Amino acid sequence: MAPLSPLAPAAFPDLPDIAGLSVAAGAAGVRYPGRTDVMLALLEPGARVAGVFTRSSTRSAPVRDCEAKIAGEGDGPTAILVNSGNSNAFTGRGGEEAVARICAGVAKATGAGEARVFTASTGVIGEPLPDGRITAVVADLAADLAPGGLERAARAIMTTDTFPKGSARVIDMDGREVRIAGIAKGSGMVAPDMGTMLVYIFTDAEVDRPLLQEMLSELTEVTFNRITVDGDTSTSDTLMLAATARSARVDRRGGPFEAALHEVMLDLAHQVVRDGEGATKFVEVAVTGAETEADARLVAGAIANSPLVKTAIAGQDPNWGRVVMAVGKSGAAADRDRLTIRFGDILVAENGWVAPGYREEDGAAYMEGSELTIGVDLGLGNGTATMWTCDLTHGYIQINADYRS
Fold this sequence. Notes:
By secondary structure, the protein is an alpha+beta fold. It has helices spanning 61-69, 92-110, 131-144, 150-156, 209-221, 256-274, 293-305, 307-314, 320-329, 360-367, 394-401; strands at 21-26, 38-43, 48-53, 78-86, 117-124, 165-173, 176-185, 198-203, 206-207, 238-243, 249-250, 282-290, 340-343, 346-350, 353-354, 371-377, 383-390. The strands form four sheets. It has a six-stranded mixed sheet with strand order 15-14-13-16-12-17. Strands 3-10-8-7-6 form a five-stranded mixed sheet, with helices on both faces. A four-stranded mixed sheet has the order 1-2-4-5, sandwiched between helices. Helix 2 (92-110) packs parallel to helix 3 and helix 7 crosses helix 9. The protein is globular, with a radius of gyration of 22 Å. The relative contact order is 0.14.
């Protein structure tokens, strides 16, 4: 396993139990013997589930199965099973049959209908999923289901991650406590369009499924669809949000529940970037003054995904010319003489040229930090966008060169 990311949090957070949710994790030996690599979550009857999935045209068999089921609602329990070590992607009809067998096994062990069993797989692409190893431990997982357990579940879904990812918020709504807790995995093959990333968020709030889906979809656009590690969209990205209806009711947008959900999603998204394969620096790219929001996002994405920008950051080189290049290649409207570039609070370039007061040594000193902001103002309009990325180091190459060994 790769060494712990230098950007990792000090510890896994203390996640609150969610009423109506029980969790278990175990070792199925999907790829590595003895490794905790499968988790099972069971939601009691009455829960509502929403989901967002990868836009990849080569998405995995579990993703396609979840997409077909996500809009359904049933009166019985809902189950979620996730394995690491094998993505069950590009595995043809055999992959679909493996999903069906797993869903049948989970349904039998938990009492959930097969249409209410959601699965996800993460790991190597193109290898048949040894689903028999998973179904062999499903009964034991079901017997171990208990409140809590989200940290162990977070560890079970890791692949090249160096730390498990969790986040929570507890809020008061009309005198009732509402809890939100989520876990995530992701380290490489991370890009907008749901960037390899699995995310499971649970709340005890009561939210009708259409509203739950609307909030999840829109918040994804400003959280998980604004992060990138390497610009590669995974075949397996799955983000699910489940509400168990055991606490206060949420029946509108824009209130304290949505704000807290946004905080949890953004925290998890940032943790994915902080665990970017080989990453040593967390980078915010903030674009303002674009003609449109779409143009701002084009520019932010061009900067955040540029190997030249990312390697300059890794080398602590304040090479603002790389940023100029990325703006120009983005396809967004831009005017050289209106462009302003900042590294943090340092004015680097303006009016089509390096700023008169800029000193290279100031830029170099700023680049030594582990938390950086690249600010770009296009001077053309009111469009804004922010993306989060990391540097590109030798560690990224080493991890991915040895990935299947």
